[in-house]
Amino acid sequence: MRRAFEVSRDSAGNVPPLSAIFPDQMAPIVRTQDGERELIQMRWGFPPPPKIGNHPVTNVRNVASPFWRAWLKPQYRCLVPLTSFSEYKDTKPRKTPVWFALNKDRPLAAFAGIWRPWTGVRGTKAEPVEGEHLLYSFLTSEPNGVVGPIHPKAIPVILTTSEEYAVWLTAPVEEALKLQRPLPDDMLEIVAEGSRVDQPVDVH
User: Fold this and answer.
1) Residue 155 CB partners (closer than 8 Å, separation 6+)
2) What is the CA radius of gyration of the chain?
């Protein structure tokens, strides 16, 4: 991650292999601090808008909403590293997780994310975590032809090049939001199905 995202400051500690990341869990993200790219762990899910309940908001589609506009400034944008991601196929009796990646080798890419500081209680009822939190979410768009048949609502906004990473982290809002589009069909494939976790790939 340090090499792929040109990170010069690593504040994430010893990140373990993460074969699945669920809402409200910690995961590494890349943000810009004092002109340097920093790798740091944050908790997945923004606090919801008022009167929307208390479930963390894990992804953002309507970037025109005043609720999100403040967090689309360059200083609050981040990269959310991924090797694969899952959506649930609407099967019976229970939904089936389907895993997508750039290819079977699961190379690193990044979701176009946003982050914010927040004070409150997160975690589970059994293990509440009170105090200061750093939270992240990421953008979605209309699905492409690979994800659409499984999950017709949306696809995460995926960035795959150093140029896209730089635009998302530093460009003016209008330019950065041009990246809010589905990945071309030929750049994504189904790599696993049925398990709630994906198989980690050895990276040397």
Assistant:
1) 140, 141, 142, 143, 144, 147, 148, 182, 183
2) 17
156: which residues sit within 8 A by CB, 6+ positions away?
59, 85, 111, 138, 139, 140
**Rounded CA separation 95/115 (Å):** 30
Domains and CATH numbers, the chain: 9-83+110-187 (3.90.1680.20)
Distance, C-alpha 127 to centroid of its chain: 24
Paired residues of 141 in beta bridges:
155
Euclidean distance between CA atoms 154 and 143, whole angstroms: 5
Q: What is the pTM of this model?
A: 0.93
Question: Tell me: the pLDDT tens digits for 1-20?
Answer: 999 999 999 999 989 889 99
Structure tokens given for 26: 């910690």
